[in-house]
Amino acid sequence: MSENKAGKTKVTVVFPAKNEESTIEGCIKAAKESKYNPKIVVADGFSGDNTRKIAEELGAEIILPEKRMHPGKGIAMVTALKKILADKPDMILFLDADIRNLTAEWVDKLVDPVVEDGYDMARGQYLRAPRDAPVTKLVARPLLGTFFPEISHFDQPLSGEVAAKSEVWANLLNRNLPDGWGIDIWFLIETATLGYNIREIFLGFKEHKSFSHYTEDVAKLSKMSEQVALTIIKEAIKHHRIDNVENASV
Question: Which is more confident, 208 or 167?
Fold first, then answer.
């Protein structure tokens, strides 16, 4: 892509964050180096550390959720989308705020397929530590295989790295979005069932801080697992897929 075309594409990068003071600076600085010169927004879930202070010092806009709740990733992302869409960006890109090895190339790789190749959404795919992503491996992908086999090939259905046209995000906001950790899988299912073109983009190895919190005890992810599973089941009911269980192997 020419620099001229990149300069004319209005991109907003959003970091949903809560207590990410050790990584937010590196994430924001990396995103700022993208050829798209994006606006940076931090959707902060009422952090109790210096996350907001650091982000503000780096020039990021801070958006707080409409209500305080935990887990509240979904409500934070929805609140951010509502406010950002009013500025009429061409694209909005969500990135996790706990990534230790984020680079500007990630931003470019996720935005390029939408701007250059006509995709409606681009989602991050990456290598992860063998014991990482247990909710993806043990909950999300098996349930997608049963209820939504047409999208079960996505390697990272819970990816926090997602870029899409603003019209896609605006359309999704017209539906009943989850407030918590079910938001990522909900975005994938709804975008696919609406007929949008989605591409998964390989970004390399993902090193993120949250992995250290559950390395020795995946039970810490029980609430996340529950919300992801319930979101998929509710979507299966909504889209008349729940009867797929009759043909599932047990």
Answer: 167
Comparison of pLDDT for 158 and 210, the residue scoring more: 158
Single out the residue of 106, 138, 137 nearest to residue 206, CA to CA.
106
> Is pLDDT at 92 greater than 60 in this prediction?
yes
pLDDT score for 83: 97
In contact, 147 and 236? CB cutoff 8 Å: yes
Q: How is the beta sheet containing 121-127 ordered, strand by strand?
A: 61-63, 39-44, 11-17, 91-94, 162-165, 121-127, 198-205
Overall domain count for the chain: 1
* CATH (domain of 47): 3.90.550.10
DSSP states of 154-213: -S-TT-S-EEEEHHHHHHHTTS---SSTTHHHHHHHHHHHTT--EEEEEEEE--BTTHHH
